[in-house]
Amino acid sequence: MRHLLALAAFALMASPALAQNTASTSQNGTNNNAAVTQSGQFNDTRVIQGDGTASASNAIATVQQTGDGTNLQRQNEVLIEQFGDGAEAVVSQAGSDRNEVEIVQVGDNFAQVTQDGRVQGAEVRQDGDGNSAIIDQAGNSNQIGDALDQTAAGVEQYGDGNTATVDQNVTSFSSANVLQDGNDNIAAVRQELDGGAGANRSAARVEQVGNLNEVTINQLSAVNNSRLDATVIQNGLSNMTTVNQGGQDQVADVDLLGNDNVVDVLQSGMGNSAFVQVLGDDNAATVSQSSMGNTANVTQTGSGNTSTVTQN
User: Fold this and answer.
1) d(CA 180, CA 154)
2) What mean pLDDT is predicted for residues 30-54?
3) What is the pLDDT of residues 242-263, one digit of tens each?
């Protein structure tokens, strides 16, 4: 590890036009610790703990990047791959634009990403057991997903007691994706927005398949041209959906398939729309929209359905 840091320091002293810091480390075994600190522009960190066959349990990877890059050629990148239970990855990026983080974990792991700047991208993929992912972004045009390998979902969790929390706070364009497949999943997305770019976008997507799922999306808004949007898809067992949006165009689309479903959508003034479709079991849906061009379609089929729609 000392060798890697020495390389980074040497790169930092190079000509500014060529300055690039690269840190790369690979660890197997247990109780490993990789800590990387980089400053400047065009920093690149790769941390691999375990290799898919040899586990690296209880590994810790901590990366902190501070930079002054403002374009794509000066962006900072972090890739962390951890295989084994009890691993932890914490990444912080600040002071630069167009930074990207991708974390891949297999096992009972924890991941946290904090980004401050414009056009940031973050992606976390977790497979197995009691995983937890927290992503916090501040700035404009940031998104959860499409980091490094351009895959679609920002947080992907497969199996067991998963939790995903996404907070994009002070943001303009916004976008967030969460995919959870299996067991005790909880996803919460909070975006505080204005608007701009790509049809003045805002968005949030959550998809959950199976078991004790729960989704909360808040999108808030100080109008500007907050378009908002939210799609929640839940598949089975004790599902619960809450969507609150806030002012301007809003659309909320909730699709539930089975078991003890509860849906609650509240959208405030302007374009409103809400489509809720539920198929089976102890369903209840509440849609409350405040004035302007309200539309609500609620379809429930099967078992103890209750629907309340209020459009002022």
Assistant:
1) 11
2) 85
3) 888 888 888 899 999 889 999 9
Distance between CA atoms of 223 and 243, rounded to whole angstroms?
17
Residue with tokens 């539920």: 278
CB atoms within 10 A of CB 169: 13
Question: End-to-end alpha-carbon separation of the chain, Å?
Answer: 62
> Any idea which residue has 């109008």 for tokens?
223
Nearest of 102, 108, 98, 112 to residue 81 by alpha carbon: 102
Alpha carbons within 13 A on the beta-carbon side of 115: 33
- How many whole angstroms separate alpha carbon 133 and alpha carbon 157? 9
Confidence grade of residue 21 (pLDDT, cut at 50, 70, 90)? confident
- The alpha-carbon radius of gyration of the chain (Å, integer) is 21
- The Cα–Cα gap between 211 and 52 comes to 27
DSSP 221-285: ---TT----EEEEE-SSS-EEEEE--SBS--EEEEE-SSS-EEEEEE-SBS--EEEEE-SSS--E
DSSP tag of 235? -
State phi, psi for 2 to the nearest 5 degrees: -60, -35
Residue-wise burial string across 44-73, b where 16 or more C-beta atoms lie within 10 A, e elsewhere: bbbbbbbeeeebbbbbbbbbbbbbebeeee
Hey, what are 267's tokens? Answer: 């959208």
Q: Give the integer Cα–Cα distance in Å for 188 and 151.
A: 21
